[in-house]
Structures are given as structure tokens and as C-alpha cells.
Amino acid sequence: MQWARHRCDSGFEVVRLGVPVELRVGGARRPARCQIETWAAIDAAGGGACELDGQSRAGRLTIETTSRCYLPERKVDVILSVVESIGPQQPLPRSADAREAFHEAAEAKRQFARELRLPRGYSVIAGAGNAVFIFAVALGNSEWRFASLAFVTGLVVQVFATGIASRRFKRLNGAWVSGFGGPRATWSVIGLFAASLIALIVASTWLMVDSQGVLSALVALCALPLTTLGDRWWMARYRAAHA
Amino acid sequence: MPELDPVIHAPLRLRLCSVLSAVDAVEFSNLRDRLNVADSVLSKHVSTLVDAGYATSRKESLDGRRTTWIALTRQGRAALRKHLAALQALIDDAQVSAT
Q: How far apart are CA A4 and CA A14, in angstroms?
């Protein structure tokens, strides 16, 4: 974490990305020298040698050093996040701060994208839903009496399977990203996947009309590996786009 | 030259927006853990973004428990892009003046 110190009339301000923080030692403001020593000690310990306790007073955060002990990075982050939430008006960053902010934002995004995972069985469930839908459409096209029933049944199964898969994704990742919500780099995968599904529907229907029900079902089942492949490819493109 | 957005400018909100921009929606507790902040702090920042029209917050039931999902709006995504462009311009300016 980068810290910058600035001298001002009231002593020393500790500034991170332009956020002013008043530093007090042991409950009372100390001479500037003492503050320098305190922060030098924090720096020397690679992030913290003093325990800090932050609280807001009159719209300004005061950090008090209470004892000399290990200061975890997470505590500093929490204290600073309180500082940042105090007022909407914040000074504009300098170039060094801008660079740090830019890289922090990019890293947060990159790390988040990198840690997204497909849950176990996600592609199988979604693929099975697609396969049932394709076969139902083929069945409906070959036998017009059942067309509506077959289409609705296939659609319900597919929506149900997609619902289960998306819930598993949300539960695992605590986040949701739909196909079209991803970066543009993934749209080509979605387009190709959609075209492949349409091709499977056409092929399966043609075989079913030709009274080759088993072959038609086998073609519909191709949606399983296709979905698995599409999901993995999509995820790879998604991660690459955020890398 | 694009201007910095005062709503996104706070470092935590910038990271928050950046994470949100990668996905459609993120669960509140997941965001809290990733950003390493207290519930109240994150709630305050999210409220600021929602008030500005940059984010939405909705409740959802997942496995029988109520969860809150935060998402960036189209306006929020556009504002983030502009803010990042402004930061990049600041960095570029500093590089030019250094050389």
C-alpha cells in the first residue's frame, strides 16, 4: 500500500489517494516528529507496527494509535474505507495516485474474472436441456398434431435446466454473468454456439421427418458436448478479455 | 479530455465499480469479502452509487436465504469508462511531462 505524507498547518496529514486523515497518538495530537516516527514504524513493518482505531469526528477521520502490535492489512483497508465514505467531496488525485487507482481497479476486475468458475455438472445440465429442446422441436415438426405440446414441453425442460445451472453458478461464484453480459470478445462464441444449435435442430428435424428417430435423437444429443465445448470456450474468452 | 467522476472517484467505489463491470450482478456478501470492508461501509458506498443511478440493488432468494445483488447500470458502466479514461489521461500527461 502506498502512503504519502504531507506537511500542513495542523501538522502532518496522511494521504492516500487524496483522502486527508488526521493522526493522533494516544488520544492527543502529538508533535509532528512523533507522527513521523509512528508512520516510519508502520512503513518499516511493511504495513503496520501500530494498531489503529478509526472513528469519525465532525466529518473528519481520526486515527489513534493505541498500542504497538501487528496491524493486518485488512484493518487498514477497513479504516480507509470508512474515511472514503465520510464525504462526497474528495480532492482530485495526482498522477501517482491516478496510476495506483487505475491499476488497483484493473487488478480487482482481473482477479474477479479469473476466479469465476463453472460449477460441476453445469454444462451437462444445460446441454441436456438443449438436447431435449432440439429433440422436442424435431418431434413437433415431424408430427404436426403434437407440435405445440412437444415445443412447449421441450421449452419448459430447457428453461428448467437453465434455471438449475444458473442457480448453481450463482451459488458457487456469488456472482452472475449472462452470455450477453460478458465482454464483446465472447459474442463470437455465442453466435457460433447459436448457429450450431440451429444446425442441430435442422438436422434432427430432417432425420425425424425421414423416419429415423434414433438418429434424430443422437443428433439432438450432440448438444451435450457442444454445450460443454461452448461453455469452456466462452469462459476462456471471458478470462482473456479481462486479463 | 474526460473528467473524473466524483461519485466513482473514491478508491473503494472505483474498485467496486470495476468488479461490478466484469459481471452482470454480484452478491453483497461476496463483494464485501472481496473488497475487505465492513457491511456498513459497503452498504454506504452502494447507496451512493444507487443514488447516482450508477447501480441497482435487488433482493433475491437463493437456497432459502435472502441475498442482495448489486449490479451496475448502463449509466454506471458509461461513467466508469469515462472515469478510467480520465485516470489514463492523467497518467499519460505525467509520462509526457516526465520525458
A: 6
Q: What is the pLDDT of residues A65-85, one digit of tens each?
A: 443 444 555 666 666 666 555
Is B13 within 8 Å of chain A by CB? yes
To the nearest whole Å, the CA of A53 is away from the closest chain B CA by 14
Strand order through the sheet with B25-27: A175-176, B25-27, B65-72, B55-62
Look up the pTM and report it: 0.66
Residues B26-78 have pLDDT tens digits of: 999 999 988 888 888 899 899 999 999 999 999 988 777 889 999 999 999 99
Closest Cα of chain B to A9: distance in Å?
25
Q: Which residues of chain B neighbour A95 with C-beta distances below 8 Å? A: 90-91, 93-94
Say whether residue A202 is in contact with chain B using an 8 A CB cutoff.
no
E-assigned strand segments in A18-133 = 19-25, 50-57, 60-68
